[in-house]
Each structure stands twice: as C-alpha cells, then as structure tokens.
Design brief:
The protein has about 70 residues and is mostly helical. It has 2 helices and no strands. It has a domain of about 50 residues. The mean pLDDT is about 90.
C-alpha cells in the first residue's frame, strides 16, 4: 500500500542540490559539442563519449525505475 502524501517527510533541498547533476551533464554535453566542432581524431572520440552521457543516464534511470529495490 502506498504511503499517503501527507505522511511523507518533506525534503528540503537547495537549488544547488536540485540542479547540480543536470548542470554537470549540460556542461559535459556542451564541451562535447565544442570538441566535435573544432577537433579531429581524439577530439571526435571525446565528443562521442560526452554526447552519449545523456543517453546512458536515461537508460540507467529507466532500468532503475523498471526494477525497484
């Protein structure tokens, strides 16, 4: 049985706590886009890794939601 909303403890999170990870992902993706525009060789590999980060994170979150602990 699900816990009613009124009985759940309230989490007080700062703006930094909420946006820390999305900001980091955005900065990494921006760096990946910059590397893809200006570099060749190793820069291309690094840009692919950086730009694949959101896809990997989405898959990890999706799998966690499908198989709760």
């Amino acid at each position: 049985m699900a816990t009613p909303v009124r009985n759940r403890p309230r989490l007080h999170r700062s703006v930094w706590d909420v946006f820390r990870i999305p900001l980091l992902v955005g900065v990494i993706c921006g760096a990946g886009l910059g590397l893809a525009l200006v570099g060749d060789g190793v820069s291309d590999v690094l840009s692919w890794l950086a730009l694949s980060l959101p896809v990997v994170l989405a898959i990890v979150c999706w799998r966690r939601a499908a198989h709760p602990r």
